[in-house]
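In response to a reviewer's request, we include the raw inputs and outputs for one of the modeled complexes. The two entities were modeled together in a single run.
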Amino acid sequence: MTSASKTPHYLLIFIVLLAFGAMLFSAYKQHAEETDDYTRKVRHIVVNGYQLRLCIYQTQQAFDSYSLGNPLKTKSGVAEVYDICWSKFEILLKGETNEVLSTIPGIHEKLQHSFNAFKTLEPLVTQLRPGDGSWRAFDQVMEQEIIPVVLEVLSEIRIGTNWKQAYLKRSTLHSRTLVVLSVFGVVSIVAILILLLTTQVRATKEALIKAEQAKVAKAKFLAVAGHDLRQPLQAVTLLLSTLQSQAETPDNARLFQGIHHSLDSITELLNGVLDISKLDAEQLTVNNEAIALSPILNKMLDRYVEQANSKGLVLTLDNQEDLYVTSDELLLERIISNLLSNAVHYTHEGEITLSVSHTTNSASVTIKDTGPGISGDDQQVIFDEFVQLDQTRANNTKGLGLGLSIVKRLCEMLGHELQLDSEPGHGSKFTLGLSLAEAPAKDNLPDSSRAQWSLENLTVLVIEDDRSILDSMAVLLESWGCKVVTAATMEQAISQAKVLYERDDFDPNETLLISDYYLSPNYNGCDVIEQVQTILGATPTMVVTGETDSERLEEIRKAGHSVFRKPLKPAILRVAIQRILRNI
Amino acid sequence: MSSSLNLLLSSVLMLLLLPLTAIADTLPAPKGKVLLTITGNIKHSNGDGIASFDREMLEALGMVKLDTETYWTDGVQQFEGVPAKAIFELVGVTEGQLRVHGIDDYSASVPVEDMYEHRTLIALKNHGEYMKIRSKGPLWLIYPLDERQQLKKKQINSRSVWQLSMIEVL
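The model returned the following structure tokens for the whole complex.
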């Protein structure tokens, strides 16, 4: 509607602009012609004025010489020069010449007076005889009435006087007015055009800002909603694991597996949607630092090995060295996780290899599968949002087609190079290029004395305000042989810690604190851990949260705690606990 | 002796040449006061490569009327005169350049083309009276200014020679 009504608007302005332009052109042309005409007229006056003076002198000379009896011309010659003089007077007094000359006040009257005096000389010319002495009378009129006036007129019209300029202004008034009007017209139309355009640009800008604000609002909403969605998911996961450990039989094992897969899918979908909305809103912050690659790869292997095995795939990790790279730990995790998830999803038989290689200053992480492969055309589109290949098989499984889009955008943000080598029927190979970093100085070496994998003898203080999660977590941990102490508030945690500390078998190295982040409006998990550690000392810690804001997660990490996002699967929780205790 | 022989010979030659020149000169000689002299590259003359015209000869070519305004006069002027074309046909000039002289020593360059294309007039009369020198006569080269607007300005003003007395064919 608006665009339809604005187009003719501009067309009209353009037509008016053209009209003014044409008007300016014609007015300018007219003005040039008028100026030209004026120049000719003025020149004509000046030339004829000087000719008149010359003619008067010639007449006087011819008359006087004849009258004195020493004739330079015949009598008819005298009459002829007198007549020529007469005609010169008339030229200045008639026609357009007079019109122009009359712009000098009084000039016509002076010339006319002089011409009248000249006419009175006619009887003297007709009655002229040699030596008649009439030259005295002739000269008297000439010297007194004619020559002074003509000289005066000449001085008035001579070059350098400004009457000509005044006449030019008067005679070109019309065309000059037209020029000024059309220039004004053109300028105002252009001004209107600029005004309209700037208004439109501003409107567009405002619309863009609004759209941007809407995007941010959407991302914020999704982040909050995501946080709330994670809580019940976490509870369900833990409860399910507990139920499975208590009630699994060979008959219902497949059912449990199915429920676990569905929960995984919901978690994946949730993470994908949250990530893409954050990328859209440019809400992700990048914390580039030197990070160890091996723990991330191990974690990824743990996360997907079970899923791969259940599909009959072999997932292997080929990582020979402990490399450090410059990246953002959380975001790099997302990239590798998405690529692996993608590989597991699309590969139906064979193997998936996660491998690392490096040169002097760069490292590459390769995810290679034996899936269907991607054709050249498809390679152009797979990084777009909501694109899924292999529709026939993918239709009935999870996914929104966001994974690779997130990978691509995260890689762009982090400055990591992503390369895809694939051919239909020959599998796909995604290679992630990273920069090597210096290994940070290690302040705490792994405690080799601890039994590597066992969780026996471990005391865990779980702080969680959600009763169902707290209970399911306790059941789960106890099933692994841990001694579990639970607390729902800071007060409970402190009193439990005091009890723990009093116990004979208390060992800070064999005690783990697991806390939820959002506990109360007054304090969070970090605060509680801080308080508890004043009693128990520097125990290993772990914060589990539904929080998705990367800045907040980073904050928790910087406080010295391992951070895990809800929902946390039992297998991952177990591996995580082992890694924390081993300081890996 | 020899001088008288020379005189005789030259007299004989003169007598022989007279009829020849009379054949070349198709124009009659002017009887009255000469108003217009055409010199230069002309085909027909009435004496020594010059064509001279008195008032009678000019009027015999046929007078036409032309009412027009001029730059130097007030109001519409009623001119009568001979079409310039008739005069130039008579002296056998159809193209080239002319230098038109006035008795006040003014002269202007005029293309012959103007005489044929623009109905120019060698005017003798204005408002029914023969023009005198003081009224820019006795002859005035008049362009029909009102009929063809493109003639009005620029060169035409300088080509309208008044007090016209001599035309030089270049």
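As requested, we also summarize the result in words. Residues 15-24 of chain B have pLDDT under 50 and may be disordered. The interface with chain A takes residues 70-74, 103-104, 132-136, 153-154, 157, 162-163 of chain B (CB under 8 Å).
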